[in-house]
Write a structure and sequence with these properties.
single chain
Length: 247
Amino acid sequence: MRQLFRHLRNWMIFSLLCLVLTWSLPAQAASSNSQLEKQVIQILREHPEVIIESVQAYQQQQQQKVNEAREEFLQKLKTDAKGVIGNSPVTGASESKAVLVEFSDFQCPYCAEAHKTLKQLIAKHQGEVTLVYKNLPLIPIHDQAMPAARAAWAANQQGKFWEYHDALFTNQKQLGETLYLDIAKKLNLDLEKFNSDRRLADAAISEDIQLAQNLGVAGTPFFVMNSKTFSGGIQLSDIESKLAEAS
């Protein structure tokens, strides 16, 4: 039966391809199009399990790719942490056994809560952990996520990422152009350079987004530490237990 389903699935795919191709042919192929279309629809009606099996197979292939990408990333984090960090902002210990990579969105309320926990972690465990910030603005649901990420990236070009980062999360409910400029002024940033750099930020942010997609990251905040991944709301004690494992 499974072989039959596989045969039907392959035949259906071939038929669909033929249908697409014949649509591009002259008008005399119209009757052939109609007949082939009816055949494909009939198969779908009589054997919906073929579609289900195809979707499941595709999902399994995609999940396998994600698992392989995560394994490769975790291995690289062990052997080449600097390569993983790249040009991303870093705080905490300059050299440590524990590297905590965070994928975050400045408009995400859960990220704002995680920010408070991470501040406690860095203050309590100075010299023990390196925190790396990666952008993952959830653009479809957070209209200020990308503008805020651009502003923080521009601040980083003047060595003030973390100060700007903290101000964005502290004033999360006021995200917008007025706030971005106000923070820049308070941090004594060169406003002309700040505005210019914001227009150059997309490439670096897109690189972070692509990495997150490769790793199958579906939401924020998302963390990688000590060969483990975890996401959502976090408690200080939870991260400390993972930090202990890295010691």
